[in-house]
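Human: I hope this is not a bother. Would you mind checking the protein record under this note? Thank you for your patience.
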Amino acid sequence: MQPTRTSPLDRGRSVLGPALSLVHTGAAPTRSALTAALGVTRATAGAVLGELEALRLVSVDASPVGGTRGRPSHRVGVHPDGPVVLAAQLHSDGYSLALASLGGALGPVRDEPLAAADIADPERALRQLARAGAELVRASGRRCVGVGLAAPSPVTEPDRRAVGSGVLDWASGTPLGALWDAAVAQAGLVDALATADGVAGVANDANLAALAEHRHGAGRDAGHLLYVTTGHRGIGGALVLDGRLYAGAGGLALEIGQLTVDPEGVACPCGRRGCFEAEAGPDALLRAAGLRADAPLHRLDGVFAAAAEGEPAARDAVRHVAERLGRGLAMVIDVLNPDRVVLGAFLSQVLRGAGELVSEVVADRSLWGKRASAVPIVPAALVRPELAGAAELGWAPVLADPERLRAVR
């Protein structure tokens, strides 16, 4: 009996997703690099790239560049006119939207407020967000193949419920995923989605920001990445292990805001004293600078600017928060033993203002910080990591199975 002959593409179908992921993260900028990373033959790599080109996901530059062993290779990149996903982020007072192509690039960001009555009603808030997203997609004329939402709340898995949010005044257990699915369907986005099988992506914003920083930002190549951030209120953490987000048994891992960093510290809304988020968040800097804790957050920039100019009270306020930040990081580092720590926007400003103090406190209080190879603590690199992470959520089904784009046009 004659053996069945298979084509290079047949042999390469199982690596279509990994190949696209390599291009998406910039890990395979040439065909030779892609061939080596996948461990396939040149013919199979060529067939895989041909299929991804046919799906308008990648482009291959015909002009050869230097390859291995003297062989010329070809540049591989994201297709300039390929599909996009809708990235959405919900805040305590509004929302943000952007279209995102492969490769982690966000288009222009649209930031819009929501009335207090709207944000208090999950269904109403999500419907407004989805309608605005549908308008953005239609205006672009691009093919939308996914949608992702970054929520300022812990989100359980697999039932996608918002629980225990200190930012959104919603009942714990709000069926966020089901409400978002319904809002996306009502807005007419579902017909445009080729990837999500009627389910719109939604996850915690800190988790998504960590994923984006790992793939496209300051966390690239980290094996065990700890991401710590704060928004309007609260401090959240996330962990990316070997390229995969660790969310725990029910999606609620790394809720580190209630770690006690100062037993005699300020009262926290949770009922305890000296919690990480109460001592090292934006409210703490405002208080330390002699401002009301509920002062407009744009006042934070003034405090950081004054500290940079050497104004004593502002400098002391930044150092106060930096010391508490170091305490909190030391505890989390001891538990998780990461090889890199990335800090979100506000905490990055604290790091820039008093980075030596943060490192000194971590070294003093952390068992691992005392070692010569102390974990690096670096600022985030992405401008809008939460939105970029929402885009990663939208792209996830395509990265898992690019050929599903053929199913719906």
